Amino acid sequence: MSSSASAPVDARKEPPKAPHNGLDAFFKISERGSTLAREVRGGFATFFAMAYIVVLNPIILGGAKDMYGHQLDNKQLVTATVLTAAFTTLLMGVIGNVPIALAAGLGVNTVVALQLAPRMSWPDAMGMVVLAGFVVMLLVATGLRERVMSAVPLGLRKGIAIGIGLFIMMIGLVDSGFVSRMPDAAQTTVPLQLGGDGHLNGWPVLVFVLGVLLTLALLVRKVPGAILLSIVVMTVVAMVIHAVAGLKPAVWGLTSPEWPGNPVSTPDFGLVGQISLFGGFEKVGVLTGVLFVFTVLLSCFFDAMGTIMGIGDEAELTDADGNMPGINKVLFVDGIAVAAGGASSASATTCFVESTAGVGEGARTGFANVVTGGLFAVALFLTPLATMVPSQAATPALLAVGFLILSGSIREIDWADHTIAIPAFVTMLMMPFTYSITNGIGMGFVTFTVLRLAAGRAREVPVAMYVVSAVFAFYYLMPALNLT
User: Fold this and answer.
1) GO cellular component annotations, sorted alphabetically (predicted)?
2) Whole-structure pTM value
3) Could you report the per-residue pLDDT of 33-65, keeping only the tens digit for each?
């Protein structure tokens, strides 16, 4: 990521530096061309970029009812969300030694809230998430998950990385309010519009625009800590505007830039451990239950795979073939995270693409995760403070990092080979347009397999790609076959 001043020299091109101390040696900070200051800045940047999940996950899960009409308590959901994010992020940092933070996965929590819970109890639904986590760990232990990742051609991996870059840019635009979905009543073929009504109105959008310009200007000027500095500055600006203009908290969306009356909150661990591993199968039957677990598994498996590939490539943690050394540890922790999310009733926990904000600050090791996880741990007692940063102040980082990912990978795709170029193109477009990493990967895989067969190059398709493409084809056909 040569565009950022805080980005270290590619450790693959220069000999590794000698560690300064035990901490440096354990996390390989100097070896990977980073510094302690960069790791700390990266940890803070990642936390602020993904802190919205503390508010959003309880809203998604708390707004749904199970088959008995029960709803999960909001305060308990906040505790479960923060606790699981802290635990799994720290675990990934210490064991996986990568700057990839984890929290309750968006998309998976919607599946749990809208597909699983209405047909069973909440403990049953969360039990199925735990089972999906166990399956992920089993796939890692048998080497199947790494085999799938290794089977992905380099050009398609670059397409996945670019797709993630475009996806997080789209997340930034939507979460900031810069673009919004056209109301269904408009009867238009245009799905998105500028602002909330076709125009850029309101102070929050102005904060976002200024934040984008400030972030990019700081990056161009090669200011150390550009992304984190922009988040802090725009949070202060938002707080001043909020106070002076007398805005209502709802104007900002999920979080409001105002000092909380009481920044201290007491965590409520009431939902932790409230699961029933096999109760859901009694409610919906074995076949439907297996399909539910399969749906959660597929989303968690490939969402994390794409994120790990994209961030690993951007953080320069991959070798010349695009493989990440020690990937099995990372994948196994991800499996633990899925199960831990279900066990705490926070829904499946997965790798967050917002970790690219930390990578943009130069984070290259798991120590950045220690910082991010530590901040989540503190947020258990200071949740009101964690939600002070409005999305309009944090999301500019996603646009900046999305551009850096795209610019660093797009030239490495062999555009002359259409059996690679077209699947990569499909992958990078489908991620933002379907708002799903899993969909982008699935459609790219199926396209790749079909085009290689059409070109008479069937032997060049790894067996794992045939299997995964068939799984995705079945997944997409499930609704037509009335299996969902």
Assistant:
1) endomembrane system; plasma membrane
2) 0.79
3) 999 999 999 999 999 888 889 888 998 898 889
